[in-house]
Amino acid sequence: MSVGLIGRKIGMTQVYDADGVIVPVTVIEAGPCVVTQIRTLARDGYSAVQLGFGQLSRGKASRARRGHVAQIGGRRQTARTAEHAVPKAGGEPPRWLREFRTTDDAHGFTVGQQLQPSLLQAEKFVDVIGVSRGRGFSGGMRRHNFHGQPASHGAKRVHRKRGSVGASADPSRVLPGTRMAGHYGAEQVTSRNLRVVRADDANNLLLVRGAVPGPDGAFVIIRRSAKKVRS
Q1: What is the DSSP letter of 154?
Q2: Alpha-carbon torsion angle 120, 122, 125, 130, nearest 10
Q3: In this predicted model, what pLDDT tens digit does every residue of 189-209 receive, in sequence order?
Q4: What global pTM score does this model have?
């Protein structure tokens, strides 16, 4: 099954496994995720399942966003015939919407269905996708882990500089891709092959071993591992 979950990073803690070994885990609020739309090959040209997570207050949601999940009586909705009508999940508009590609239309999901963390309980490893913490404009030592300049006698106020950036007469320029100071963080990062430790449907919590990108409260996507197979 290629459909994953959408969640929110709660933080890190430690739990004990069945053998009494302490395991560092990241707690993710993964659900309930509502199936908002089903993409079919005949209508959309590809097969996918669209999930929604979280709630957006009606005052902050646009009319188009509310019409995405509920019947609002708009002109475009009423103009559609019955054969072209798209089923609606109902309820308030979700804060986050993401699609998960499937191999075919026979995936077994229906619009309005709620998915919980137990969906990934059978998966031994998962990939977590998130946006790393933004660190602004950073120097070479922080951004690329450079060791800096020597701190011996005669070095004055250059201890954190990166040093030379290019050649002399040939090629007389700085090559593209040279690692320098610059914007660091705030980019999409995928943590691969994280072991699923526990899935709690009662509290909508998913525990995975290790760290995931982003600060506490960040939006993340959990999917089946693309590298390792199921146990």
Answers
A1: T
A2: 0
A3: 999 999 999 999 999 999 999
A4: 0.84
